[in-house]
Amino acid sequence: MSEPTPRLFQPLTLKSVTLPNRVVVSPMCMYSARNGYANDFHLVHLGQYALAGVGLIFTEAAAVSPEGRISPEDLGLWDDQQIAPLGRITDFIHAQGGRVGIQLAHAGRKASTYAPWRGKGAVPPERGGWEVIGPDSAPYNASFPIPVAMTTEDIARITGAFVAATRRAEIAGFDTVEVHAAHGYLLHQFLSPLANSRTDEYGGSFENRTRLLLEVVRGVRRAFPQHKPVFVRVSATDWAEGGWDADQTTQLAGLLLREGVDVLDVSSGGLTPEQQITAGPGYQVPFAAQIHAAHPNLGIMAVGMIDTPERAEGILQNGDADLIAIARPHLGDPHWVQAAAAALGASHDVVDAYARGTRTT
Question: What DSSP character marks residue 77?
Answer without folding.
Answer: -
